[in-house]
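Bug report (template v2)

What were you trying to do?
Predict the complex of my protein with ISJ.

What happened?
Run completed; filing so the output is reviewed.

Input:
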Amino acid sequence: MRSRVSDIESRLSIPPTGWYQSLTAAGLRNPEVHGPARYWLQVEGSFTRALQKQCSHSFHVEVRREGFATPTQEEARRLHIPHRQNAWIREVCLCGDNQPWVLARTVIPLRCLEGEGRRLLHLGNRPLGAYLFTSPHWQRGPLETGLCKPGIPGQPELARRSLFSGHNSSLLVGEYLLPALFQRNTL
Ligand SMILES: C=C(O[C@@H]1C=C(C(=O)O)C=C[C@H]1O)C(=O)O
């Protein structure tokens, strides 16, 4: 039998998103970025760690899909890779206390998968952050703020994204905040 969290989770999707270089720039379009989600749009360090600190009893990663696929044209441009080149694309739901809190989409170009980067193919339910923040090779670039196209209530409206640069290549991590995360009155 499917669990309740899987049922809620299966109705969620990553919406088309417009990306801005800063929270301030996004705020001119949608002042909601300065509301309760602001902390999550700006928190530094491992996002997984920050979420885990907010959990009362459990945190887990559910893989929604993972495999080789073509990134969007915008993602390919951001990563400086040819636009029809396949990449390893990982989409997960980060759940706190059995509630879906964040959807994440990571685009990992082929060059990142060489050498020890092969481990990225086998993360499964282990959080990517645990890998990126324990390996000395990866450096996070500046955070962008995303405004998702207006959609159905309960779907992500705000997002954040950044490039992580390794030896000779970068990967792109997008995190889409679900209202359930920042509408809890705990921060
Ligand atoms: C990049 C991080 O990894 C987190 C875990 C992810 C995964 O397992 O796919 C994706 C995005 C994250 O928020 C992080 O913890 O900061």
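What did the reviewer find?
The chain is about 25% helix and 30% strand. The mean pLDDT is 93.
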